[in-house]
Amino acid sequence: MIEMDEAAGIGNTDSAIINGLPVAVYICNNEGLITTYNPLAEQLWTNKPVLGKTRWLGAVKTYTLDGTSVSPGESLPAHSILTQTDTPAQQFIIERADGSRKYINHHTSLIRNRQGSVTGVINTLIDITTQKEDEGKQAMLAAIVTSSEDAIISKTLNGTITSWNHAAEKLFGYTEQEAIGKPITMLIPEERLNEEDHIINQVRNSQVVEHFETFRRHKSGRLLPLSLTISPVKDTSGNIIGASKTARDISKQKLAEQQLQHYAQNLEILNSFGKTVAENLDVQSILQKVTDATTQLTGAEYGAFFYNKLNENGEAYMLYTLSGAPKEAFEKLGMPRNTDVFKTTFRGEGIIRVDDITKDARYGKYAPHHGMPKGHLPVTSYLAVPVISKNGSVIGGLLYGHSQPAMFTQEHEQLVDGIAAQAAIALDNAKLYEEIRIINARKDEFIGLASHELKTPVTTINGYLQIIERSLAGTDRNATFITKARVQVGKLSNLISDLLDVSKIITGQLPLSYAEFDLKDLLAECTEVMQQTCTTHNITVEQPEEPIIVNADQQRIEQVIVNLLSNAIKYSPQANEVLVKLNHHNGQATISVQDFGMGIDPNDQKHIFSRFYRVEHVAAHISGLGIGLYICNEIINRHRGQLSVNSRLGHGATFSFQIPLN
Ligand code: ADP
């Protein structure tokens, strides 16, 4: 309360005092008319109330903090005058003449004259806008920290926890009371304690540690995968006084990453498995791949494939491939026997997946072991999948084990089942292939035997025919029949020789005897003999003057030349010429035989050097066995040479071979 002489008026000195005050001040008389205000009040309002006219309030509008408009009549000075009391400071929001708003602390103090009557009221207005805004920000920040899903912790530079939000409590399991004041190291696993030194060093250097992926420990001891962001905390003068740490639980993300990695890995295994199995016809490697891939995919400690075969005593299935354990591990301990657990699989009754086989009703019923033999690889989790052939028979079983319980899931079951189906197809194919291979081998064996057995009687018949031919020479008209019979027997003999050669090639027993000779002589001889028996074609030879000496098996090279010549004649029935060229170049002698006949389609050219291949449309009307070129090719290859063909369908063919000069 201020005591004054004048009624709500002030003298010049007082006015100077008011003007000099460091806060906004104005005075109303007891009718509420503003009689004085200082420059700071004008600045605060950005308004100049009309002295003696404006009542109670100098701002354009006034509101309580909750936004209710305050009319001048209900204002603080009006209330003071009405109740004849000073009022403690109250906070308001004023709207200024420039439209902006300010928070103020309004305080009134009554003015009384000497008689004690109230003559007016002094209003002190303090601008608290900055403070209010800061408070708002603080409150907002506090709300954010409280409601954040990330754990937010602050700590001093020596590592003492100073704040701990709700999410931190949820993440680490400690309440705020349990955490505050404690060292941050209580969250750090021992082997990672050095991380804290590193973090604090960074913080001291004003550096932010961002998205640092690590592990921290939950109150229960469990490790938590976290992503940490640590920032320095500074006081108002900019000194670093601590650090704030945001910890985000990344276990879900890690799990997703792991799962993705797991899927990628599975895909890779499946892919490589598919490829190997599709390309493979070897039972052992198919089954090894199947066992390896599925053991990996199921995470089993060991996996094995057992053939569906029991020994004479009906005891053990046959272990074929194993993954994750040495074969001895099984051999030492005996094979799986014809027990309830196993035979279900080998009867193809379906998949067995058991979380703990030792607790299974089918387990442990049989002597002598009553369960797993002592020292057996410890199997608790058990998965067994039958491998069933297309014809329904059970080829075998894939069995997996793990020492921990409940390791195999439905997903594993499906994966193995899918692979087992593929494996069954591959095994069926391998079996077919094996059967074909055996049949083929038998056929080759038969050709060898048959040609060998035929050779002797044919040679004998030929001998007798020769004797008869000589004895009848010129005397009997039957002599010509004998000659014709001899020619046919000769052809038969050649065919048998060719078949014998094939058999020798297959068994790797085609002998060659090398000697030096002039290829020109050999070629001349061959063409001459050929020309004698051929009336349809004219065989022309082009060759250099000088001799061409090679070190080769003369008989076999002759066989090649004769074969190429007879093919040239045989496959050019419409033509009348065969052109033979011999030359040498770069240490190689080359002989080519060109005809002007039907030629060979490029698709057939790829196959004509294989055993028993004949061009289909030709084979129907020109006889042959399809082995001549096969033998020629083998002979030339054995001479480290090359036999090739150059031809266009309908435009004749040129067969050439090179062999090294002596
Ligand atoms: P064969 O003559 O007994 O059938 P070959 O192994 O000598 O056996 O020849 C294989 C196939 O190559 C023949 O069936 C024929 O279709 C084709 N062939 C060989 N030589 C010629 C040629 N000069 N012109 C056209 N086709 C040929």
From TrEMBL:
Q: Which InterPro entries does the annotation name? A: GAF, GAF-like_dom_sf, HATPase_C_sf, HATPase_dom, His_kinase_dom, HisK_dim/P_dom, PAC, PAS
Domain PAC: start-end pairs? 88-140, 210-262
Q: Which reaction(s) are listed as its catalytic activity?
A: ATP + protein L-histidine = ADP + protein N-phospho-L-histidine
Q: Which residues form the PAS domain?
A: 137-206
Q: Which residues form the Histidine kinase domain?
A: 449-662
Enzyme Commission identifier(s):
2.7.13.3
User: What enzyme category does the UniProt record give?
Assistant: transferase
The UniProt entry, under Pfam families, shows: GAF_2, HATPase_c, HisKA, PAS, PAS_9
The entry's keywords:
Phosphoprotein
- The entry's protein name is histidine kinase
Which species is the source of this protein? Mucilaginibacter roseus
Q: Which lineage is the organism of this entry classified under, starting from the top rank?
A: Bacteria, Pseudomonadati, Bacteroidota, Sphingobacteriia, Sphingobacteriales
